[in-house]
Design brief:
The chain is mainly α. The protein has a domain of 114 residues. Helices cover 85% and strands 0% of the residues. It is built from 6 helices and no strands. Helix 1 packs parallel to helix 5 and helix 2 runs antiparallel to helix 3. The chain is rod-shaped. Keywords: Coiled coil.
Length: 248
């Protein structure tokens, strides 16, 4: 009787333990399910963080590219600025040189207009060679005109009196026309020293300076004999003074 009672107790205890175990198993299952949910949430957050990290890396790379592009653009802008500055300096120097040339040309043109052309023209007009050529041309022209008039008068006389008039008494020979042609040839090919000088000067780049030195040479002051003697005495006195100082 006692055995069955113990058996019953054991069964009851076993059932109680099994029930307790079942409760604990169910609790553990619930805990595991909650852990699974938590793990799934953590995985989801981890994946999101990973995706965000990739997105941040992409954004960071894009920003890095932007920075590099900006730096490259800045470098190119600085290079372009340096080139522009250099070109501007060259342009300013060229402008200054051109302005100097223009000012020089204006000054030289003004001098030529007011002084050079007048002097050259007067030198040409007053040249002895031109005077002689013009005088010879006038004489030859007068001779041809005189002979032509003489022959024309002779023709009128012959027509009036009906007989031939002797023209050998004319003071101008038959060679007057040929002489005039020769004089005209000389006049047309006349070469004056002043024109040759000006032509030679104009072949040089510094033609204005050369022409000015010819037309307006620098003035020289001629010393009188007394001034030259005084200058020589002064030099001698200085030399004597120097020797005296050395003796002392």
């Amino acid at each position: 009787m006692l055995f069955f009672t113990c058996q019953d107790i054991a069964n009851s205890l076993f059932q109680h333990l099994q029930a307790e175990l079942n409760v604990r198993v169910e609790s553990k299952d619930k805990d595991l399910a909650a852990k699974d949910v938590e793990i799934a949430e953590l995985k989801r957050r981890l994946f999101e963080a990973h995706d965000k990290n990739k997105s941040l890396e992409i954004d960071l790379e894009a920003e890095r590219v932007k920075v590099e592009t900006a730096e490259e653009a800045k470098k190119k802008a600085e290079e372009a600025r340096d080139i522009s500055t250099s070109a501007l300096n060259v342009a300013q120097n060229n402008y200054a040189e051109a302005q100097t040339i223009v000012d020089t040309l204006v000054s030289e043109s003004e001098w030529m207009r007011s002084r050079g052309v007048v002097v050259i023209a007067n030198s040409i007009l007053n040249a002895t060679e031109l005077d002689e050529a013009v005088a010879a041309l006038i004489d030859a022209s007068c001779a041809v005109g005189h002979r032509g008039g003489y022959l024309e008068c002779a023709q009128h006389v012959e027509a009036e009196f009906g007989q031939q008039f002797d023209t050998h008494h004319c003071s101008v020979a038959d060679q007057a026309d040929s002489m005039l042609s020769q004089v005209e040839e000389v006049y047309e090919h006349l070469s004056l020293p002043v024109t040759e000088l000006v032509t030679d000067v104009l072949k040089h780049d510094d033609w204005s300076t050369r022409l000015k030195s010819i037309i307006d040479p620098p003035e020289t002051v001629e010393l009188t004999d007394e001034e030259e003697a005084a200058g020589g005495d002064g030099d001698g006195g200085n030399e004597a003074g120097g020797d005296g100082g050395g003796n002392e």
